[in-house]
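Lecture notes, continued. The same structure-token format from the folding unit now serves as the input rather than the output. Read the line below as a description of shape only.
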């Protein structure tokens, strides 16, 4: 063997050692204790309706394709493999914080990891979005699902991502954990992906109400364990996404969504109370303005709002029972910066500065200018500081 061959082989060997060490990295990941002290708790105080020096702000999908560094990190990598890497999730969660003074971070993951944990195959297809090759078609298909999910085993990668990120965030801002709500997850599991009408999933509600409740209950049980696992791992707040609330009417929402949203909050809170923990919970039921009163009495500290609700009437209808989060139309981020500032000012005047967390009414879109997200954050901070000083 020549000297060059030997050097080459040694190099290959060392790379293999490094790769093996990386794949065993979870052994070296930090544990969920001794977290750095929280320096900015504005978001948590606002969630609890306490006084703050400025209105806290974060954006749904703040870690996303609108950031060139996000596109670079994700390039060529499978979406769900990325979700399964604590290091990758941590990096993607921290990216927006390096650019903007957000008051909270949300762990990079996806709501569809829960159906995966229950035994369903979900793939992220480029240009199409999440796809279930074998969606649920008839009630008998429920037998394919895992009823009792060991969340530590099936979703431990999310918990490890949360623990790592909570350490790496260095107490800058709180870290939000999340889950999809039962109805939204059920609709994906039956539709097999995104849909305009959600008619396949809604057919179940009208043709198979009992099986629908059975599935919603199964999902609720997993979600409760999953959210508790996220808190044990280091999540400091929790958001439940009922993104498909708007395709239900008020009666169907009351029967197939609201009871499960309530059950999740009650069971998570009861368990946390036993452990002496108090973690604010946010419910975001998109387009469910018809259910605002009920949502404000469903045991969540914060109700997230989409942009179809007027801030002042949202305050009136929720009667000061909860903090509110939202709700600038994401498309307002296409406006020039001065206009964004004016829109933010009006929004703050409508909501008031107490018990309020500024956010968009839904996620940031991939074609939005990072600079305009910066302008949104700055406008919230600047205007709210002035308003609070004048009180
Ligand atoms: C950035 C991203 C995510 N998911 C998807 C993407 C884009 C794809 C990519 O980057 O490759 C695919 C991805 N995942 C999903 C979709 C929507 C598909 C559809 O119904 O059309 C897409 C494109 C499903 C999903 N996934 C999520 C929801 C609820 C929020 C909402 O209403 O948008 C939903 C509905 C939650 C979610 N998803 C994600 C986060 C964490 C990042 C952050 O918010 O900063 C969160 C909280 C991350």
């Amino acid at each position: 063997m020549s000297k060059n061959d030997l050097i080459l082989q040694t190099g290959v060997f060392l790379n293999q050692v490094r790769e093996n060490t990386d794949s065993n990295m979870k052994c070296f990941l930090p544990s969920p204790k001794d977290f750095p002290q929280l320096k900015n708790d504005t978001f948590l105080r606002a969630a609890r309706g306490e006084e703050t020096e400025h209105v806290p702000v974060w954006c749904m999908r703040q870690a996303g394709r609108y950031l060139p560094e996000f596109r670079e990190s994700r390039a060529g990598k499978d979406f769900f493999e990325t979700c399964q890497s604590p290091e990758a999730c941590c990096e993607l969660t921290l990216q927006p914080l390096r650019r903007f003074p957000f008051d909270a971070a949300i762990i990079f993951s996806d709501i569809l990891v829960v159906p995966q944990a229950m035994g369903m195959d979900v793939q992220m297809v480029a240009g199409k979005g999440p796809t279930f090759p074998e969606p649920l078609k008839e009630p008998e298909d429920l037998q394919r699902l895992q009823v009792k999910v060991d969340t530590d085993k099936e979703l431990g990668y999310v918990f490890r991502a949360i623990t790592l990120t909570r350490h790496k965030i260095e107490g800058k801002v709180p870290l939000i954990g999340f889950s999809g709500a039962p109805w939204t997850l059920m609709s994906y599991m039956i539709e097999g992906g995104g849909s305009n009408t959600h008619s396949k999933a809604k057919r179940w509600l009208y043709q198979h109400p009992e099986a629908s409740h059975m599935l919603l209950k199964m999902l609720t049980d997993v979600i409760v364990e999953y959210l508790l696992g996220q808190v044990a791992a280091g999540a400091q707040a929790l958001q439940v996404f009922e993104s498909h609330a708007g395709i239900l009417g008020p009666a169907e929402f009351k029967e197939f969504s609201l009871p499960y949203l309530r059950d999740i909050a009650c069971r998570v809170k009861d368990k946390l109370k036993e452990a002496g923990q108090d973690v604010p919970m946010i419910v975001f039921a998109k387009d469910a303005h018809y259910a605002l009163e009920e949502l404000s009495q469903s045991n969540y500290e914060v109700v997230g709002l989409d942009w179809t609700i007027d801030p002042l009437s949202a305050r009136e209808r929720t009667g000061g029972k909860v903090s509110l989060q939202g709700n600038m139309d994401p498309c307002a981020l296409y406006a020039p910066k001065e206009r964004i500032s004016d829109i933010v000012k009006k929004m703050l005047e409508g909501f008031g500065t107490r018990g309020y967390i500024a956010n968009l009414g839904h996620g940031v879109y991939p074609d939005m200018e990072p600079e305009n997200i910066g302008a949104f954050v700055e406008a919230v901070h600047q205007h709210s500081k002035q308003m609070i000083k004048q009180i």
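Point for the exam: DSSP finds 16 helices and nine strands in the chain.
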